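Re: weekly structure request thread

Next one in the queue (539 aa):
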Amino acid sequence: MPPVYRHIIYIWFPYLAASRIQREIGMALPLVVIKNIRGVDVVTSGCAKATAYGLVAGMRLADARALCPDVITEDYNPTADHADLHHLALWARRYSPLTAIDHEFNGIWLDVAGAEHLFGGVRGLLADCAKRLHRSHLRAVIAAAPNCGAAWALAHYGQPSQRVITAPKSAANQLDATAYTISRARLRHYLARLPIAALRIDTDVADHMQQAGLRVIDDIIGLARAPLAARFGTDVLLRLDQALGNEDEIFTPVSPPQPCYVCRQFAEPISAPDDVKAMIDYLATEIAALLEQTRLATRRLRLGWQLVDEMTFTYDVHLSRPSRDAALFHRLLANASDGINAEFGLEMGWMEALDCSPLAPIETVLPRMAGQKQDGAAARDAYASLVDRLVARLGYGTVVRLSPKDCWQPETAQSFELPDPEQLFDGSGKKTGWFGNPLCVTASPRPIRLLAYPQPVDVVALLPDHPPAQFIWQKRTHKIIYATGPERIAPAWWLAPVGSRTRDYFRLRDDQGAGFWLYREGLPERHETPTWFLHGFFA
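Done, posted below.
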């Protein structure tokens, strides 16, 4: 039986985190990513410009600033790095279905054995991969070797001309035993000149070996294994055997999420409304059973159908919280058949569950064990059911709620967000946000109606801090009989545009009983010309 030769490709992204951050903030200055280790900020990675200044991983931030005072720092975000590597591993499945992530060193592995001929060989595959990554503005180092350890070592420490080791072919274009032996000897020759750190061993162990005079891999290949393991640990021998191909190393490939999809085809086209409704009910029941089987829940259902002329249409139903309840699906899709124009008939219908996630345990089943109150869970479920019905009737994006923000400026103290029961209720079933208890009981009351844009008014008032005695708005004069204030609100200096001024708000009531919220922009004590605006109405 001829020997098996694997082609393992390792793609290393040395500037992955920095590239992502630079695309987000749009800065071209040197940038490093830092992580707090035992109270000290340490550089974990950087961009190409930071590397040119001598800023390397493991350096303290104080030393990095000494070399480059203009360096920009960002906190280490392992979640974002993992997401980027996962997307890259899924993208690399265009070359092979066997791809894996190297979280520790920001790289991915590919086992392309049996697929390299589709690109004209390993070198053709590497050229195509490098071209596509360069087109996406990603700096990468690519290496190919017979095993994972050798590919990793060549990518991190190998010379650019020695990063590809392919299987030599005999005269019959077959890999025989002699060619296989020559390939392993060439691999050993390439690895022998690499430093000890190329074996993927611990940094402290590599430093101790260098202090002992063992600086390159060739220094330990011929040494006795037992004393070497006793002094530096068995991990050194394991990594050495894996790099030389004496020990097999496998990885767990990533797999794309499997779609939750059900379909029904018809021998004869259907067009009757009752048949279309029966199709939708069948698909809703089947998708709920599939979600139950896979222990998932969905936040979006997509109903699709195909006409006899092969035209396809889709209809989306959004849920406020993940669910796999068949009864809920039937209620939300009760009127979906009204929007389907069957024309000459439907040949096929399908339903897909999107935005799926594992469903959390239902608190209403065991409220005592979950530490929840029955009424709180019931209120959350009732709120979610109401939102789902409104969205199904009015359309996605039309049902929103006001969410409070940590800002004193009235214009930015709230924002519109999609309703989410998990944000409206806390873990104990109590209401949060504006529906809960106020966090600051000393804050002044706010008007029940806030104008989208403050409107200028003409005011008669004594300076510097007296409230208005009367004001004119929309050609109507309002005489003030009761006033409280001022409440001073200064703009956020780190966010406000240039020229923003401090405001003094007054709560007023006129002789007709109407309540108003006026503010004076500009402070007389700062020699600023004040201007008055109407911003809201009280009950």
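The chain has 16 helices and 21 strands. Residues 361-374 have pLDDT under 50 and may be disordered.
Next request, please.
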